[in-house]
Design goal:
alpha+beta, 7-stranded antiparallel sheet, extended, 2 domains, 13 helices
Length: 379
């Protein structure tokens, strides 16, 4: 992929694009319309208009009643309600137009850059930490590039949305939205996670929806640990050092220190706790830089990786992260398979106490304390 052509994002939308949007753009719900970027400039004016109509109508109503009586005041109230309905209807039409204009702009951008654009999609083929949690899971504003020439790489950008119940006793839910960049690699790799420290919560608590066992954390050289917490499966530490060489670590710090990074199978994922804005040209330039710099460098480093535990568990795949590449003939035999052993394919999740487990433990402690109290009372 070349540098993204962002002209469709900043130039006026053509009449042809708007006609296509009227024909193909899915009708937005009220919540989607109010959440869209066009709502930020329409809704405040609509509220001011409604307030102005109500205040002006009330003043006119009082003046008319004083001059002409209550019967004339009823006419003014009717006209005021008609004006309120008109303002609300015009605001809704503007929101609809803004939604279609956004669709037309993003569809034009996708066409200009070889993407397939989907405003909304259910189901996923990805296996990262944000794709299989919560309920009502879906993807929004999905841009997918499928290579049609040698040397190109599959890329996908979108927003992952899911809901999590806030309390077991209430119906309240919290909607989570993650921006993601997915880059297809040449080979399957061990499961690796780079948890950025910059976006962690209070007391260094990770913002990711899934936690992993702490004994899988690997410390790297330099100040890398100040920016990322690296997790890799046990006994795959050497493999991680082979992939994350000093130059790759430097690129990760420079380009993705604000994001969480994950490698699952043959995909590289970059996650943002706030969705990537597809209407922002600078967002696309940054994503292109991450893909072309970090993605290509990691893909190049991993292009000759093979998990020798699949073929010969007694052998070790790499003994030195800086070791020279093997001869081509040896590589060919090792690369005959593209698999990772089960213990390296997925990180072990951290064990968490469920609410029921905590409740049972608290109940047991309470019963024990009550039994001790009765025993002391009767002794």
């Amino acid at each position: 992929m070349n540098e993204p052509d962002v002209r469709p994002l900043i130039e006026p939308v053509s009449a042809e694009a708007m006609q296509e949007a009227h024909a193909y753009a899915p009708a937005p719900t009220l919540s989607e319309s109010l959440r869209g970027p066009q709502a930020r400039r329409i809704v405040p004016f609509a509220i001011l208009g409604l307030v102005g109509v109500l205040v002006l109508g009330w003043l006119v109503s009082e003046l008319v009643e004083a001059a002409l009586g209550q019967r004339a005041q009823g006419v003014v109230v009717f006209l005021m309600l008609a004006a309120v309905i008109t303002v609300a209807w015009l605001s809704w039409l503007q929101l609809q137009h803004g939604h279609r204009e956004r669709y037309a702009r993003l569809a034009s951008f996708a066409s200009a850059n070889g993407f397939d654009y989907e405003p909304k999609r259910t189901g996923t083929r990805h296996e990262g930490v944000v794709f299989h949690v919560g309920s009502s899971r879906r993807d929004e504003d999905v841009f997918r590039f499928v290579p049609d020439e040698p040397g190109q790489r599959e890329v996908e950008v979108g927003t992952r949305v899911y809901e999590v119940k806030s309390s077991s006793r209430r119906r309240d839910t919290t909607v989570h939205r993650w921006g993601y960049l997915a880059v297809r690699l040449d080979r399957r790799l061990p499961h690796l996670l780079l948890d950025a420290t910059r976006n962690d919560g209070a007391f260094g608590v990770s913002n990711l929806p899934i936690g992993f066992a702490k004994d899988q954390r690997l410390s790297l050289e330099g100040d890398f640990d100040r920016h990322f917490a690296l997790y890799c499966p046990r006994e795959y530490e050497t493999d991680a050092l082979y992939l994350f060489t000093p130059d790759v670590m430097a690129l990760l710090i420079d380009e993705t220190s604000a994001y969480d990074v994950e490698v699952v199978d043959d995909w590289l994922y970059v996650y943002s706790v706030t969705p990537f804005d597809p209407n922002d040209p600078e967002t696309w330039r940054r994503l292109h830089r991450i893909r072309s710099v970090v993605g290509e460098r990691l893909a190049g480093r991993s292009s000759r990786y093979a998990d020798d535990r699949v073929v010969a568990p007694a052998q070790t795949q790499v003994t030195d992260a800086a070791a020279p590449m093997p001869e081509a003939s040896a590589i060919t035999s090792r690369l005959d398979h593209n698999r990772v052993a089960p213990r390296g394919a997925r990180l072990r999740r951290r064990r968490t106490l469920t609410t029921s487990t905590v409740g049972l433990a608290a109940g047991a402690v309470g019963l024990f304390w009550l039994f001790e109290w009765f025993e002391r009372l009767w002794s």
